[in-house]
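During the reporting period the student researcher (J.K.) took over the structure-prediction task from the postdoctoral fellow and processed the backlog of single-chain submissions. One of the processed entries is reproduced below for the supervisory committee.
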Amino acid sequence: MLSRSSALILRRGIKTYQGTWCKNDSLFRIHPSVSRALAENKPVVALESTIITHGMPYPHNLSTAKEVESIVRAEGATPATVGVIEGKVHVGLSSEELDHLARCKSSLKVSRRDLPFVISKGLSGGTTVSATMIAAHQAGIPVFVTGGIGGVHRDGENSLDISADLTELGRTPIAVVSAGVKSILDIGRTLEFLETHGVCVATYGKSKNFPAFFSPKSGFTSPCQVSNPAEAAKLIASTLSLGLQSGVLLAVPIPEEHAAAGQQIEEAIQAAVAEARAEGITGRDVTPFILQKVNDLTKGKSLQANIALIHNNAKVGSQIACALSKEMNERKLRSTNHHSSESDIVVIGGINVDFIAKPKTKTIQFGQTNAGSVCQSFGGVGRNIADSLSRLGQRLLFISAIGADSHSVAVLNYCKHMNTSGVARLQDQSTATYCVVVTESGELSLGLGDMDIHQQITEQYVSRFEKQLSSASLVCLDGNIPVSTINYVCRVAKKYNINVWYEPTDIEKAHKPFLSDAWKSLSYSSPNLAELCTMNKTLGLPTPEVLPNSLEEVLNVAVALSRPLLEHLHCLVVTLGANGVLVCGEHDAGSVNLQPRKQKRKRQLCAVHYPPLTVTAEEIINVSGAGDSLAGALMAGILQQRDTDSCVRMGLLAARLSLASPHPIAPTLTLDSVDPNKVQTQNWPKPGYKRID
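J.K. obtained the following structure tokens:
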């Protein structure tokens, strides 16, 4: 049996996250123009800053940076130059910040490896390809334009001198637009390394020749080729949709009018490489030495070609970003249209990013630091229920609101298996966050939440989906949304004869539908005993001052409190924590009829009590999402027209999976994993039946 301390297991889920930085974090800054463009789903192009700090001398570096940003804007996209200034990672730089980096003589070259040190010391620097990819991905920018990427150095098979750009491409889903790699590198081994790490490489243009920065031909062939921005956008969109977590390298040949100088520059490069070897220059000093030497040998022609190449990349990359924005918006629209006509259930509720702290000792000492563990997870009652329903094969539409921050990027990435086309991403808002401290045994000790954004799930926003609401078999509301939104959905339910499930979330929100006659349009609700008391109290009905402890008294009180609500509600699922579940509703062949009623009529009522499944303390990893798993599986069973016993058993099995998972909704949750006919469970708890007079 589950202990009393696991009362949360049949209650709300604490919810799940995998991002690392947020908009308000002290280390990460998104420029307002970039944040606004992302919130409005407009194209944004990320740009690196080592070209400013280490690629060119002043003032060429500053003028080139501003010219590149102007090109991006001219093509209809928003530039987001990434840099580190005094220990802060900036995505998008002001004119003053660009000038600061261009003039700063102490700027460091910041790769993935260097980010922690530079931030911890409050230093400034230009971000390389790898560091820029990290920042862009966290901000939700899918396209990044640079000059050329790093690669496997010559003799790299012995020195193991391999650029972090390549490994970053293998683990960060960003499209990098570049002119290939410089001929000072081992291009063949670079392409082999990218293949090993699963990076899709494509040449942009008419040829499959892989370019070598100053030369349109390296002697090697790209595995793929795209001819125009639309084709490139489809390639990137497909990569992102597959969730491969690896990038795309789009290699753009240098413009033909500047390629003529390529041979002269190549000869200078070979001479510079030989001189670097002779002088014993190695490691990260090689590239800047060679670039400066080549510039000297070509009397500035290499710098001119470099600038022309970067301008061209910016133009092509911006066109691709615009085409990708259009492609993704069209896909989202198609997805919305597809799902809107086929959604069995609409879920309206909150999304949270949760921080869960658990001490290693039985007691918490307030006023001092306690040893323990802290983890992050995704959640929100609405999100958890939608997650559960999706994993159980239900076609749904999830309506919610999140901020235009990196938490939202991570949430949407985690929820790719769900239809989130109804989730609004709001500028100047923060995705809801919740911090909870639980005891060693899993009881809630303290919780703090920043959930103001849930009030943005307004009647006006939800009314956009009235067509989907009117055709749904079931609509689920969680108590986080505003009273006016709940009242609106109840009016729609009454108008179209829709079944609505209300998930109260906690005692402070359980009363919301009962402030008016809106509750009479509800069909289902799943309160715990305290929330059920709140519902009755809001209606002016008598409730016990102290909740009972013994199982018999608990069941009697739950039945008495359920009776008046069942005058209008079809069914109540009262979650009793360690005492299991009490299902109250219309009597049907010795059980409760869970299937939606088509019309209200006088009926005989009954209650059936289901004890919880046996779970040992050692098996419990996370008590946060069992209640939401139970509710989601119950709804899935109802929609699949299963009998009541099967529906409740599905819910109990889903709750048990949640307990044994670090996630609120277990990723292993499937129809087979909760099918009572397929899951071997010893001694299914026997339900108890009670008539309600």
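The committee noted the following: The chain is about 40% helix and 20% strand.
J.K. will present the remaining backlog at the next meeting.
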